[in-house]
Every structure is written in structure tokens, then in C-alpha cells.
Amino acid sequence: MKVRTTTVAVTAVLALSLAACGSKGSRSTSGADQDQLTIGVSMSLTGSLAREGLLTRSGYEFCQQVINGKGGIPVGDRKVKLNLVFQDDTSSPDTAAQLIDQYNDKGYKLVLSPYGSAATEAAAAVVERNGQVMVDSLGADDTIFEKGYRRTFGVLSPGSEYAASIVEALHDLAKPTPKTVIFLSADDGFSKSVTTGGEKAARGLGMTVLPTQFFPNGASDVSAALSKAKALHPDVIIGSVHFVEGVAIIKQSKELGVRPQGFGETVAPPTPDFPQTLNELAEGVLGSSQWVSSGKGSDKWFGTSADYATAYKAKFGEDAQYHAASASAACLALVMAVEKAHSLQPDAVRDALASLDTPSFFGPIKFDPTGKNVTKQMSVIQIQHGEAVPVWPADVAQKPLIWPGAA
Amino acid sequence: MNAFLQSTVYGLLQGGLLALVAVGFSLVWGVMNVINLAHGAFVVVGAYVAWQLNEWLGLDPFIAMFGSMAFLFVTGYLVQRLLVNLVVNAPVFITLLLTFGLDLLLTNGLIMIYSGNYRAINTSYALKSLALGGVRVPVGRLLGCLLAVACSLLLVSLMKRTRTGLAIAATGMDRGAARLMGIRARHIYALTFGIAAALAGLAGAMLATVGTFSPADASKYTLFSFVIAVLGGLGNMYGALAGGLLLGLVESWAGQYLSGTLVNAVAFGLLVLVLVARPAGLLGRPFYESRLEV
Amino acid sequence: MAAESRVDVTGKPAAAPPTPADEPDGWRRLRPATPWAIGAIAVLAVIALQTQLYSGQVRTVSTVLMFIALAQSWNILGGFTGYASFGQVAFFGLGGYSTAVLMAKAGLSYWMALPLSAVIAAAFAAVIGLPLLRLRGHYFAIATLGVAEGLREIVINVPRLTGGGAGISIPVVGKHASTAYLGNDTFYIVFLVVAAATTVLVGVLSRSRLGYGLRAIRQDEAAAAAAGIDTTRAKVTALVLSAFCTGLVGSVYAFQQVTIYPERLFDVQITLLMVMMVVIGGSGTVLGPIIGATALQALSEYLRANFTEVHTFILGAIIIAAVIILPQGAVFFIRDAWRTRRLPLLDNVRTYRL
After folding, report:
1. Which of A211, A373, A376, B194 could lock B76 by a disulfide, CB 3.0 to 4.6 Å apart?
2. CA atoms within 13 Å, Cβ hemisphere of C168
3. Which residues are CB-neighbours of A284 under 8 A, at least 6 positions away?
4. By CA distance, what is A97's nearest residue in C?
């Protein structure tokens, strides 16, 4: 009897004391202080996307440093400093969504996207419900922009452009012009968007598209797809892949003696790890890049693409590639929108983003009604002497395409 | 026909590498009844050690692998002696959770040190291949596969012919009796764990030579080890080899003749079928199946 | 050598570690109705808590409630019988995908899809239960793991139905939406109801004939069979119940997430978390999974918020320490401390070390 009474009493007291602390609602001040703008970022710092997540974070951090180094964002008559808050979503989309919700509690109405399409898509749904605003740096899957969301804006070219740009570059530059192409694709949403876009472009340019071979996302053994491709003797092999599958295609092609005129791969070749892991095997591989250091356009914060590349290397000691640049550009778009809106209020910033039309070190930034940055063109790079060299389109090309590309 | 031969050869070579990954896992499970969820992390640590030696001293991976093995042997010995031995008599979940914690510790330690970059060890020969008729045999994978076979043979002769090996086997069967015979079980367990970790290190060095690695790969290798150990069965040193080769073959054939995305589905389907039809695995001994473990 | 005499062939102490049959003493001295009263107050307290939380905190606590429900589900089979299902996430994923497909493709309302999804998960468990539950120990664990991984691959390979690797979205706005999105507050209540229901189920089970049968199986399956327990039937029933609850949770989770992906819905980490929560809390008990899930989830949230770079590293270290200090689970640890009036911090090491 005694036990019962005490237990019940303790529990009741506990319940009441819980009920007594704090009050429900949504704080709206701390994210937008007088002289500081806090932006929440959920990022994959551990887990399967840690590498890409850390690169993306560098881009965001670099942006913060540059903006604050120039005194902050002019909003009306005052200057507002950027304060980026990072939390680790352990590469899982549900945690990313949860973190965005937590940022909303703290009044962080402006957010920058996590790495990758899955996490960005999860975050976009939350952003929409909470009336937050998100600029997407590296979630490229087209489906993010097909949901009717009005508060997510992507500075990067969408997934359907990745392989398509390689196909167009080959059509424009390669002599002899390749006639048959085969796509080797991972089976996640982003890679499939890439493949569909690439197939469409190739057919449009009169190439023969051989049956696409799929393998599991993240596969380190793609030998079966390669031996099937080998039997079809394609002129070009294009991988709609991430890093691991991209390296596997090149390494295992060498092992299995698959020798097309050349290889193209979407996201792997522009990363510094690609030539480092593959050495001479990487030579001649084409890749599509959201950004190259010879790009045209400039803005008042970062200057030109070349300025960006120089300053980035000075800070981090490694060459900037498109993950970081894309992240910086997303942050830049948000900064420009805040400046244009003369306000830190999310609705005003959203409207300013929707009507943004500006050149930048990243290329033009102008969003269509779905939130995609449509005016920007992807660049195509080729690995030449261990460096990713822009070869297409003509206005950013630094060296001619070497073709046939395969060593 | 050529395609069939090619996919068979490639599958066997891939399977050999996988067997090398799993053999240590299977050994620890069989002898100590410990499921080491940190095994994949050991493999990745091995890859990093070999890579680091290759960077610093320019060592060939087939020499650097001895460095990996030595480093991991010491690590494994100490982990067992200082940590796992503390709870080795507890229900099996406990060691499982302990090694899960260890896995988090190692994987994220590697991210903190090496920042999650993808890496590989480059050699002039590993990706070359011998052409036998129309079939190509990649050199690096061939060497890795031969190493796996050699390790299995060596392990068997160690277990059968040396006092230490017999002590390990005896401790695995009945620890109480083994201790009464004067076997220092604490040391023997640590030794077993060390050997298993060293084998993981060896596998890591090989994988770094033929493919890429990053800390995120650890869980993948643990899962492979799990599947292979069960396919092959416990209590038989050839079990891991058989399981690995079988898995490699099946995955390769599935990729060749079904859709490439069905590879894993077929592998796991096979696993469940083998378990249902022959619970002790292909070469396992019934003793290990009936052993009460939870 | 005294310790050695207690060790049998398998290296397991013959004098078994604390078993679920000894529920903590506190419980037994209470009147039968008391745990229910405490439970009801706890539920009310959680509802009261909700009124005090910001919207995003509501979601964070919802996740805790979700893991309580998952841990309890795992407890039904793993905790009571010792059959460790390492593929429990299969039922979670199946429940989630059933809901998504039923809502997106068949246009069912959520309140129809929810029970149906749980039934589908339970039916699947019944089918795989008979062949798999013949396996013992690790072999059962690995076979269920195989089922979960295989199921994920199947989901990936029927993109027309499930969206494949690209994931599937439940329509929540516009005219295709069969049920409007519930919002963080409602999901909180739904998760709470599911968590409370699974806890009640475990509570009822622990005092039922079936529950005693399951514990007997854990002690010694052959002896249990000899004592007249239909072990196969008991085990399959437990698996089906456990799958039903897990499928229910998966269904709520899927609707909460809107877009779901096979990698996450069949993530082996989720199974590992369930196991860990039950073991750290105290397996085979009613309170244990609640304690384990709350503690672990709160800890990892706290670490993530405060140690952005190294939180997983610290979590790993804490898990190792926790496992060494309280391998029998928090509930039993507290009971022993209560009985002996001292904190037996290193006793376990003395018992379990080599």
C-alpha cells in the first residue's frame, strides 16, 4: 500500500513538473536577431555520405567566412552577420527532416539543404509545412521540384542534365562522332533521373542507345553490367553513378578489357578523389560538373569563378570542386535574397528568391516557378594529366577534348 | 559460353576476396561464440594501414599487408584481452552490443582522422589481366584469391598441427575442460581474436589494391562476413572459403543472367534457403548448430 | 576454480543470469492494478508534456515513442523467448511500404491502410515463422536478417509498385491525397497510442499462459516441450504478434515521412537499435524497453546536438561502458542495487569475465 501511494505520488509530481516548464509555440526571434542571421543546416557528417557531406559543409563555411569578412549582409541600414549552425543527420533522411523541424522551433526559418536528393526531399516536405525557406545545394533529383513545393529553390542544374550534357559535348566535339552509347546506372532515384535525361538527349542527337544496365546503388562490383556492355561493343559508356560505382566501372573495365572510345561518368570525375584513386586510369574520362573554375559570371561577394577557386584553395588547401562551389552558391543565393528583400522575414525572402535573376561566380541564378535554376548550364570536364579540365561548352573550355578518350 | 566462363572466373575471384574478409569473423564466432560486428571496421582499418605504409614508404601492398596484419593482430589481441574478455561469459547479445559500440568507435575514429575520403592503393600490375582464351583473369584479384586459399590452408594446418592451434580448437569446444588441462583461456581467446583481426587486416589491404575504400564501407563487410560464415558453416576452417566462393559465384551469375539489381536479392534468398534446408551451413558441424547461444 | 564449475560446455554460466521470470520485486508486491494506474498516469504525463513542447520537439519525442513501440515489439519475441530476430526491420519496412502502396496506388484512406499494413506484416511473419523458427540462436538471427535484406531487394526490384530505389511518396496534398497529412501533433498522439498499446500487450503477455510458455522456451526449449508447451505454436504466435506491432509502427512512420526509401525502411541499424534498447533496458521485462529506448534515444539526441563532430564516437564509447557495467539490463541492475542496498558496479564484470 505504501509503495503504491509513493509511486503514484512521484509520478503525478513528475507529470505536473513537466507540464510546468516552458510553453508551447514557435519562437521567432533568435534566428533573426538584429545583427545576426542564424541559418540551420542538417548535414551528413557521419554515415554513408560523410565524404560528400564534409565537402558540402566546407562550401557553406567558406560562404559564411566570405560574407562576414566583408562585414555581413546589408539589410536596410544595418549589416547582418551570417551564423551557420550545423548538425549531423548521420546520412539518414528522417533525421534530416527532424533537424529541420528543430531549427523551426528555434526560429531558424531560413535553412540550407542537406547533402543528397533523399535527405533534401525529406527536408523540403518539412520546410513547406513549417513555412521555412530552403536553398538546395546538392539535391539534384528532378522529383524534388515536381511536388509543387514553393519554398525550396535549387541553385544547381537538375539531375536530368548531368548525363545529357556529356552526350551533347560528345556530339559537338568528338571526332569521330560516337554512334552508339550505353548507360550503366545505379538504381536510386537521382541516378535514374540522370539516365532518363541522358537517354533522351542521346536519341535526340541521333545516337543509338543500347539497353541500359542497372546495378545496386553503392555497388563496388559492376562486372556483370560491364561484360554485358562489352558484348554490345558501344562507342561510349556513360555511368550514371556515385563515386564508388564510378571508380568500379573504370577499374573493372580495365580488368575485363572493356574498351570503348571513351567513358563518361556523372558525379565521380570532378571530385579530387577520382584521379587520386585511379591514377593514369582516370585519364580521358569525361565528367559533368555543376561548376568549373573557368566559368563566366561574377558577383560582388565571391568575384569570378577563378577568384572563388583561388580563395577556396587558400583557406582549405585543396582545389575547390563543384560540391563546395554549389554549396557556396546556395548560401550566396540566400544572402542575395535577404539583401534584396531588405528583410529577414521568411515570406519576404522567399519572394525575393523567386524573383532573383543575377549573375554569380556559379553562373546565372534564376529560378523557374518550380524552384529549379534553369538558366545555368552544366559543364563537362575531362581528366587530363590528373586534372579535371573543362572542355565544354565552348565559352568555359580550357583545352580541346582528347578523343578517343580511353587510354 | 565465353560470357559464362568469364562470369564464373570473375565470380570465383571475387568470392575468394570475400572469403578472405569472412574467415576471421567465422573463426571468432566458431571458437568464442562472439559475433564481432566490428569485423568490417577491422577490414577498413587494415586498408588504411596498408595505404598509409604505401604513402609513407612506397611499400607494395603485398608487403604493406604484413604491416596491416601486425597492427591489427596487436589491436585485436588487446581488444579481446581488455574489453571482450570482461563480458565473454555474458549472454551473446552482450558481446554483440560491445562490438557494435566498438564498430561505431572505429568507423568514426577513421572519419575523424581521414575525413571520409575515398582512397585506393595503386599498383602497376593489380588491374592488368591475363587473357586465357577469351577469358580475362585480373592479376590483383587472382593474387587476393590465392592468398585466401593459402590462408585457409595455413589456418587449418595451424589448428591441426600446432599446440596453440589445438588449444584454440579445444577451448572452442569446451572451455571448462580446456582450462582444466592447463590452457590459459584468456590468452588463447585474445590470440584467436588477434589472428582474426590480422586476417581482416590482410583482406583490407587486398581490397584497397583492387577497389576503393572509405570508413563507410565497414558495415558492408560485416554483413558479407555474416552471410558467408553462415553459408559455409562454423567449426570448419574451409567453411568461410566455401561460403565466399559460393556467394561470389551466385552473385556473378545472377548479374549475368538476371537483372543486375537482383544480385543481392538472389544472394540473400540463397542464404535463407541454405539455412532452412541445412541449418549448420554447407560444411558446418552440427555441434555448432545445437549450441545454445542466447 | 569455483567459478568454473558453473560453466557448462557452451561457456554460459549454468546458474543462469537474471531471467525474465524474476520480474523486479517491486512489481510483485504491488496490487495487480497498480502497474496499470502508473501506466495510465505515464500516458497522461506524456500528453501533458506535449502541450509544453515546440513543434519540432514534438517530433523528437515522437521518435522516442516510436522506438519504445519498436523495442517492445522486439521484446515480444526476442526478450521473452531469446529468439533474436535480426530482421525485425523487415516487418517495419513491410508495414511502411504496404501503407505507402495502399495509399498511393489504391487510394485507400490512412485509417484503412494502417490496420491492413499491420495485418500484412503479421501474415508475412506467419508464413516465414514455421521454417525459420526451427533454427536456433545465431542461425535464426542470420536467417531473419537474410529475409529483411532480401525483402528490401525485392522492394527495389518492383519499381512499378514501390517506386524502387527512387522511393515512393504518399500523396498528402491535392486531390490525390486520400488522407490529409496529420501534422506533428497528431503523429505524436498516434505514436503514443501505438507505444502504449504495445506496452500493454507486453504487460498482458508477461502474466499470461503464453508468456510463461515463452519464458520456459528461453530457459530450455526441450524441457518446455516436455512440460506440454506447444513450443512451435507459442513461438510462431509471438513472432506474429511482434510483426503486427512492428508493422503498425512502420505504417505510422511511413505516413509521417511522406517519402520513403528502401534503404531506410529496411535499414539494419533500426533492428540493431531495437535489440540494443531492449538489452540495455532489461530484456523480457515490461519496463526495460521503455527505459532502454528513452535513454538511448535521449542520449543520442543530446550528443548530436552538443558534439556535432564526435557524437557517434562518444556514443560508441558509452555503449561499450554500459554493456560492461550493466550487461543484464537497467531494470535488473536497479533491482539488484535495491535489494543489496549498494551499487554493484563491478559485480557483473566479476560474473562474466574470463
Report:
1. B194
2. 25
3. A262, A263, A382, A383, A384, A402, A404, A405, A406, A407
4. C257
Cα B151 to Cα B172: distance, rounded to the nearest angstrom = 20
Q: Residue written as cell 562489352?
A: A230
Q: pLDDT digit string (tens) for C48-87? A: 888 888 888 899 999 999 999 999 999 999 999 988 898 9
Q: Do residues C277 and C329 touch, judged by C-beta distance below 8 A?
A: no
* CB-based contact A94 C257, cutoff 8 Å: yes
**Which numeric CATH code is attached to B2-116+135-288?**
1.10.3470
Considering only CB atoms, B6 lies closest to which of A220, A227, A248, namely: A227
Pick A216's closest partner by Cβ from B115, B214, B263: B263
* Helix runs in B58-184, H state only: 61-82, 92-114, 139-161, 163-173, 175-180
Cβ distance of B264 and A224 shorter than 8 Å: no
How far from C217 is each of B26, B56, B289, C136, CA to CA, in Å?
27, 57, 17, 11
Contacts of A208 (CB under 8 A, 6+ apart): A179, A180, A181
pTM of the model as a whole: 0.88
CB proximity list for C222: less than 8 A, separation 6 or greater: none
Nearest neighbour of B269 by CB, restricted to C150, C218, C315: C150
Torsion of CA B43, B49, B55, B60, to 10 degrees: -70
Q: What is the pLDDT of residues B68-121, one digit of tens each?
A: 999 999 999 999 999 998 888 877 778 888 999 999 999 999 999 988 889 999
Domain ranges of chain B: 2-116+135-288
CB contact at 8 A, A72 and A82: yes
Instruction: Say which residues have a Cβ less than 8 Å from residue C63's Cβ, sequence separation at least 6.
Output: A98, C297
> Which stretches of A106-159 are DSSP H helices?
117-130
| Of residues A270, A214, A202, A212, the one with CA closest to residue A245 | A214
Query: Which ranges in A33-146 belong to alpha helices (H)?
Result: 50-69, 93-105, 117-130
Q: What is the pLDDT of residues B191-234, one digit of tens each?
A: 999 999 999 999 999 999 998 999 989 988 998 898 898 888 87
CB contact residues (below 8 A), chain C span 200-239, against chain A: none
Cell, residue A111: 535553412
Residue A319 near chain B (CB below 8 Å): no
Give the residues across from A74 on adjacent strands.
A79
Q: What share of chain B is helix, strand, coil (3-state, %, to 5)?
A: 75, 5, 20
